[in-house]
Design a protein that fits this description.
Elements: E1 4-13, E2 16-26, E3 30-35, H1 42-50, E4 57-62, E5 65-66, H2 72-78, E6 80-83, H3 95-99, E7 106-107, E8 111-112, H4 114-125, H5 147-159, E9 165-169, H6 177-192, E10 196-200, H7 204-210, E11 213-218, E12 221-227, H8 233-241, E13 264-273, E14 276-284, E15 288-292, H9 299-306, E16 312-319, E17 322-324, H10 329-334, E18 337-341, H11 344-347, H12 355-359, H13 361-367, H14 374-387, H15 404-416, E19 422-426, H16 434-449, E20 453-457, H17 461-467, E21 470-475, E22 478-484, H18 490-498
Parallel strand pairs: 3-10, 3-11, 6-9, 9-10, 15-20, 15-21, 18-19, 19-20
Antiparallel strand pairs: 1-2, 1-4, 4-5, 7-8, 11-12, 13-14, 13-16, 16-17, 21-22
């Protein structure tokens, strides 16, 4: 009898179907790998098991009996623990407090028993003795730790649940090789004790090093489960791709002339910084260069660094034959660069302010305006918002009165009032509807035809395959493959993203 079984689990967020049919069966004493592309539904499936997301349909069975995982507390009571891909640590608390956060030892039911807290945490810290790095102790405050050390704390926190069922959603993404090997030793010991482990990873070598079986999820549906010993990486990738191997026909084809025959507009050489190393690429006039690969492989970091929003340790940018310095966004803007973030709430809109104010800051900066009449500004802004078919009642209305898609259109439109030379798009369609996406990509292709250079990072493979002239696939902070022409297939994109960096 299986330890954990999910049958036909589904979840939708409005019109977006995150999970259509999630089936998963985990045995006791097994490391079961769950794999799928960005947005395939694997994390949603795990969050349903952990109680942080309520399913719309389907059934969850534990030890053969149906259970209602009504929330995280209910999941813990049922013996289910999880490591979240998005770290959930308390930054201002110590390592020990974070490890034991779900069950702090108390004195008289009022005060934390510090001695017991440290003793309990030390048991899990000792598991990573010798690989956790300098400055890592029970008393260390989490906000002072490196990224890999914070990830270790999150792993220790999951282990401290002592749950019979443990879910690890990309737990090794920030770990070095020695830390990964130690973690795998721990997983093997837990497996020998009869624990059931769900393991999500984007590293194909890890999947075959630690897994017993692998389940593939594609487009919100479970498509296959295989024994690791009976499959190989090419077969797993083929299951992830399905029948959509070749480039899907775009709404409007990318530019027909070869980018190689056009003038180079932007050259990035030897770019290195936090999260990426030795990145070099060119963008021709009228070319759309895509950044592909799994989340967090350096794509956003490179775009932000080009725009001067984060520091670089080495590298050079040449724009239209001139070597430029973009030490900050203001300098990048005046050099002809534009940057659009998919995180419009934090890096895009000016909350609570009118639409006109949200449209004009770049125009003010580039033209060094001190004063301007609202009427003249509205006339300036009109062509940009109309090009994106933006729906709004009036320029004086607050930005928050718009839908998410129309807010993002305003963010993009502000850059089109004074046309930049190069447009850097950092997952710009995140969280917007299909109609807004179609409007955006129609405009992007139009801007490319007019000679603008565009760099597009998207977490949706179809957006890259349908719109980019070529795709640089990021893996582990570097470019693992440059896909051009007929090489731009889903299979090649997945293979380059999932193979060991």
């Amino acid at each position: 009898m299986s330890k954990l079984k999910l049958i036909g689990v589904s979840k939708a967020y409005g019109a977006t179907q995150a999970l259509r049919r999630g089936d998963l069966e985990i045995e006791s004493g097994e490391v079961h790998v769950l794999i799928g592309s960005n947005g395939s539904g694997k994390s949603t499936l795990c969050k349903i098991v952990a109680g942080s997301v309520r399913p719309d349909g389907g059934e969850v069975l534990l030890d053969g009996k149906p259970v209602d995982v009504s929330g995280p507390r209910a999941a813990r009571a049922l013996g289910i623990g999880i490591f979240y891909q998005e770290l959930s640590l308390a930054a201002h608390r110590t390592v020990a407090e974070n490890i034991c956060l779900a069950d702090l030892p108390m004195k008289a039911g009022i005060f934390i028993d510090r001695e017991a807290l440290t003793e309990r945490a030390q048991h899990y810290i000792a598991l990573f003795d010798g690989v956790a790095g300098d400055g890592f102790s029970a008393a260390t405050v989490v906000e002072g730790l490196r990224a890999d050390q914070r990830q270790l704390v999150e792993i220790m926190k999951a282990l401290a649940s002592e749950a019979p069922v443990l879910i690890f959603d990309e737990p090794t993404s920030a770990l070095d090789r020695a830390q990964v090997e130690r973690f795998f030793d721990i997983l093997r010991r837990l497996k020998s004790e009869g624990r059931s482990i769900v393991f999500i990873s984007h590293r194909m070598d890890e999947i075959f090093a630690i897994g017993d079986r692998v389940t593939v999820i594609r487009d919100g549906e479970t498509v296959a489960t295989s024994a690791i010993a009976a499959t190989d990486s090419a077969s797993v990738i083929r299951l992830m791709v399905g029948n959509e191997d070749e480039l899907a026909p775009p709404t409007e084809a990318p530019a027909t002339s070869s980018p190689a025959s056009r003038d180079t507009l932007l050259s990035v050489r030897g770019f290195s910084g936090k999260g990426f190393a030795n990145i070099s690429f060119d963008v021709a006039r009228g070319e759309i260069v895509g950044f592909g690969g799994l989340h967090g492989q350096g794509q956003s970091s490179v775009l932000r660094a080009i725009f001067g929003a984060s520091p670089v340790t080495s590298g050079e940018i040449v724009l239209d034959g001139r070597t430029i310095t973009t030490g900050n966004p203001r300098a990048a803007i005046r050099n002809g660069l534009a940057y659009v973030s998919g995180d419009r709430g934090r890096e895009g809109i000016i909350q609570g302010r009118p639409i006109l104010e949200n449209l004009m800051p770049i125009h003010y900066l580039r033209d060094r305006l001190l004063l301007a009449s609202p009427a003249s500004l509205r006339e300036k802004a009109k062509p940009a918002v109309e090009a994106l078919h933006t729906k709004f009642a009036g320029f004086s209305h607050p930005i928050n009165s718009l839908s998410g898609g129309n807010q993002q259109k305003i963010v993009i439109a502000r850059w089109l009032i004074d046309r930049p030379d190069v447009l850097l798009l950092d997952d710009p369609t995140k969280g917007i509807d299909l109609s807004a996406k179609a409007d955006l990509f129609t405009l992007i292709r139009k801007l490319a035809k007019e000679g603008m250079g565009i760099v597009l990072y998207s977490s949706e493979d179809a957006e890259l395959l349908n719109n980019a002239d070529r795709i640089l696939v990021f893996n582990g902070g570097s470019v693992s493959r440059d896909l051009t022409g007929s090489e731009r297939t889903r299979y090649n994109l997945y293979q380059a993203a999932y193979e060991a960096a």
